[in-house]
Automatic annotation (TrEMBL), chain A:
The chain crosses the membrane at residues 20-40, 52-72, 111-129, 141-169, 181-199, 228-250. It comes from Fictibacillus phosphorivorans. This is ABC transporter permease. InterPro entries: ABC-2_transporter-like (IPR010390). PANTHER family: SLR1174 PROTEIN, SLR1174 PROTEIN-RELATED. It comes from the Bacteria. Pfam families: ABC2_membrane_6. The keyword Endoplasmic reticulum does not apply. Keywords: Membrane, Transmembrane, Transmembrane helix.
Length: 262, 264
């Protein structure tokens, strides 16, 4: 366990070393917040609510969802590149479990991201953009729990997709595709209740809404009471399923490495 | 001189195409992924417009049209000039840029021709589909002249993308890798997907006169929209494209002169 904690810690330090990327990220997020703000302001210029959501609930949903989406992908890229350049063979010989190491690094990454990026920017958003707090304190607690589950599901999904690097070399395409599907179905762009009926039904059977929509809907009070607990249950289901799937696919993929080695 | 470069470009393309054909699955994956990415953006606009009729006076098809021009213009950049993204981390940092400098052709040409980005074709398909979906719904009769202007506008839009990326990629000559800056500036183009009239004045001026992403989509589209109030400004699009390219190329040459490889 100690070695994995060490990995997480080192990853945090690595992060601090790349300050150019930190500022680029911060600035890009600020820009996106501006686009979002003006876009929704224009949408609401001639009405007071959409599907029962007033402007401040909507903007709260969109901004929180944007922040959460930044945390649902993880070290998939790292894994994919390790596979692509063949280093995976060496990694497999080292005295740790590669996937566990990557997850440890990811946790370090996310902690530092949260402290240096999301937290200050989030505070800015609260001050300048009419963002509201959770409607109830139970809702707030449930949101935290649900958000952690969403991040867990996202991380495992990310690694699952990265394993496909054993079969394709277009990692950029893989990543873009994954991002597109997630922003599509996870409710990261708009609350799923705005989507057509059939789309909501489809996404109910996919893991993506568990990544972003469920936690943020709990936060903004779209999901409350039994509905919220049921949604949390489905998150647990997906978290376990993806965890198992990852282990299975990984063991299949590893066999492929030995085949490559001859 | 020109024919020599055309012939060279053809040869470069041929090599690139061979690589593409070698990895057919990856080609499909790339095209599909970009199409999906663009589609997500359009779907978002569609969902929002299911609940409203107008965005600040702009209809769904007008927004779609802006979106389509942005996507098509960007595809020119994406297919032919994608290598601009890699100047710092794939050429200068590993010392590979010196290789281009000793060849008897323009280094910028060599650098650009080094890669043809297949993934951009997905962007092109989607862009054309979106534009042709939106076109019949605009209040304008499409004649030969209008088509000609549209094509000029799209090419100009593509070259504005190129010029802006070239300008900021050139910073790599001084700082080894300027990718974070290039990427941040590129994100500004997100603003241009929607009518600039919804933004604060400061943002509008920034995107019109300083980093002219406004001319990659909104202004060209506004030319075809009756009563948008931007028809005159829209005509400036090709001029803006030429000026941006000239400025970026001048800056590139300056960078080239200042360039001392990572080794020294």
């Amino acid at each position: 366990m100690r070695k994995y904690i060490e990995f997480a810690r080192v990853q945090m330090q690595v992060h601090a070393a790349y300050s150019a990327w930190f500022w680029a990220n911060t600035f890009s997020v600020l820009l996106r917040m501006l686009v979002i703000y003006f876009f929704w302001k224009a949408v609401y210029s001639s009405r007071t609510e959409i599907e029962g959501l007033p402007f401040d609930s909507m903007i709260t949903y969109i901004i929180i969802a944007m922040f959460l989406q930044m945390f649902v992908s993880g070290v998939g890229r790292e894994l994919a590149h390790t596979i692509k350049d063949g280093n995976v063979a060496i990694e497999l010989m080292r005295p740790y479990h590669l996937i566990t190491r990557l997850i440890a690094m990811d946790i370090g990454d996310k902690i530092i991201h949260f402290i240096r990026g999301a937290l200050p920017l989030g505070i800015l958003a609260f001050i300048f953009m009419d963002i509201t707090l959770p409607t109830t304190w139970q809702g707030g607690l449930l949101f935290l729990l649900s958000a952690l589950m969403g991040i867990w599901i996202g991380t495992f999904f990310d690694l699952l997709i990265a394993i496909l690097a054993f079969w394709t070399i277009n990692l950029w395409g893989l990543e873009v595709m994954k991002e597109a599907v997630i922003s599509f179905f996870s409710g990261a762009l708009v609350p799923l209740i705005l989507f057509p009926e059939w789309f909501q039904t489809v996404s109910l059977f996919l893991p993506f809404q568990a990544m972003v929509y469920v936690p943020v809907a709990i936060y903004t009070g779209i999901l409350t009471g039994t509905e919220a607990w049921l949604a949390l249950g489905s998150q647990v289901f997906w978290a376990v399923l993806l965890f198992v799937l990852l282990r299975v696919l990984w063991s299949i993929a590893i066999k492929k490495v030995t085949i490559f080695g001859g | 001189m020109l024919t020599r470069y055309l012939k060279l470009y053809y040869l470069f393309c041929k090599q690139n195409l061979k690589v593409m054909m070698e990895y057919r699955m990856d080609f499909l994956l790339g095209v599909l992924s970009v199409m999906l990415q663009q589609f997500a953006g359009i779907f978002f606009v569609k969902i929002v417009f299911d609940h409203i009729h107008q965005l600040n006076g702009w209809t769904f098809y007008e927004i779609l049209f802006i979106y389509g021009i942005a996507a098509t213009g960007r595809s020119i950049h994406h297919i032919f000039f994608d290598n601009l993204w890699t100047l710092g981390w794939q050429y200068i940092r590993p010392g590979k840029f010196d290789r281009l400098l000793i060849r008897p052709i323009n280094p910028l040409f060599h650098f650009i021709a080094d890669r043809l980005q297949q993934d951009g074709f997905g962007q092109l398909f989607i862009g054309i589909i979106v534009i042709s979906t939106a076109m019949p719904h605009l209040d304008i009769s499409w004649g030969v002249l209008e088509f000609f202007i549209l094509i000029v506008m799209i090419i100009a839009s593509g070259f504005i993308f190129v010029a802006i990326n070239l300008f900021f990629a050139t910073l790599s000559f001084w700082m080894v890798d300027s990718l974070p800056i290039v990427w941040t500036i590129f994100n500004l183009s997100d603003f241009a997907r929607y009518p600039l009239t919804i933004y604060h004045k400061g943002i509008r001026h920034l995107l019109t006169w300083i980093i002219p992403y406004g001319f990659t989509a909104f202004y060209p589209a506004a030319y075809f929209i009756e009563g948008s109030g931007f028809q005159k400004l829209a005509l400036l699009t090709p001029v803006v494209a030429i000026v941006s390219c000239v400025v970026a190329y001048w800056f590139w040459n300056k960078g080239l002169k200042a360039f001392t490889s990572t080794g020294s």
